[in-house]
């Protein structure tokens, strides 16, 4: 006997299944990998991180740090696993992605109330369910969701950053440091590739001229009337940022603030930061360097980065689909469907963006599905909590301009005190109020 079906064993689905199982429900978690692939995941594991290995800030007065503290208080299993797989990353919670996914998979596999089925779900079930099929929801299930939700099924593109082998980085040029010296390791948590002004302009010129992968595979979907064409603003491909102006990268992902090149003693004109990607420290990702260049072009252009002239690529950057529903029209802040009390959505598919938001909404959907099952009122979290504010935002935003939203203080109701306080103090006050 199954009490609850969870569709998709990613971040949200794993957390949701666990929370409901902990509350006594018999849960069936359906995950389509490995028989059906998403195009971005590379393993069979549950909770695979598809791009960056960072779950964002761990500082208590930052929005993402607050969301972590809230989910910790609510007993998040995934945050526990992330802490067990943590790597040095300044004030952020970065993880060894393989270890993290393995720990989550083991916790789910060993739970007496959870059964994992490796199958693609093609239709929204009629019984108590949580849909956590993510931004790369399979086409068949997407159609079923579109049928349930009418015209308001949105669709757009996103891009992922390349990963390189650490021993191919030229450390005579690149140097270790964290911005403003805030890292955990004495030498600094990041590897930084410094540019002079001339090197930077040559690089941007090459980037702009490089060949990109055509978006053919998406065209049919676009023709069939699905909205497309805009990028995930927080995850723009570097070549698209570069198109906005010659110095946009130097003010964006390549900003050099808080860094000094030990060879010159000065701040470089621009910097590419590399972040450790696995526990062994043998792989590094290019922070903020999502791209859609053709693979040979990535190799050619990214090797123009000082220190990466001999870079060996473990994974190239790529573009992919990103699917999310029109939550302002379809969902309640409890994450229940507007017309079906027994149907929940969580994770990226709701328009809550980012690993931590996906975990947190999975957690709330798991708790609320269990409450529904036990004939208890599902919880609507106060808007003064980060998770409550996110759920409120995606269910109340103006549908016309609806875009995925990650944890940030801008969606909070203002503080009661009207006295002027600095940004950090404000963050602290928001966090205190929330907790
Ligand atoms: C390529 C890419 C890069 C991203 N990079 C970042 C990043 O760097 N940082 C960040 O914070 N966020 C990033 N995101 C956004 C988002 O946080 C992640 O995608 C996150 O993994 C989403 O969590 P989720 O649980 O909603 O979905 P997922 O983790 O994708 O899990 C969904 C699961 O459902 C399965 N599934 C899909 N359809 C079906 C079906 N019909 N039946 C059964 N199973 C199904 C999938 O195989 C998958 O395992 C990225 C998204 C993408 C697509």
Give me the secondary-structure topology:
Layout: E1 4-7, H1 11-22, E2 27-30, E3 54-57, H2 63-73, H3 77-84, E4 86-87, E5 92-95, H4 97-109, E6 114-117, E7 129-131, H5 139-149, E8 153-160, E9 163-165, E10 175-177, E11 190-195, H6 197-209, H7 216-223, H8 238-243, H9 248-251, E12 270-276, E13 283-286, H10 295-302, E14 313-315, E15 318-325, H11 327-330, E16 343-345, H12 355-373, H13 386-396, H14 423-434
Parallel strand pairs: 1-2, 1-7, 2-6, 7-16
Antiparallel strand pairs: 3-5, 4-5, 8-15, 9-13, 9-14, 10-11, 11-12, 12-13
Helix pairs in contact: 1-12, 2-12, 3-4
Bound molecules: flavin-adenine dinucleotide.
Give a structural overview.
- Strand 12 and strand 13 form a beta hairpin.
- This protein starts with a strand and ends with a helix.
- Helix 3 crosses helix 4.
- It is globular, with a radius of gyration of 22 Å.
- A six-stranded antiparallel sheet has the order 10-11-12-13-9-14. A five-stranded parallel sheet has the order 6-2-1-7-16, covered by helices on one side. Strands 3-5-4 form a three-stranded antiparallel sheet.
- It is built from 14 helices and 16 strands.
- The chain is α/β, with parallel strands linked by helices.
- About 3% of the residues have low confidence.
- The structure holds flavin-adenine dinucleotide (FAD).
- Flavin-adenine dinucleotide binds next to helix 1, strand 8, strand 15 and helix 12.
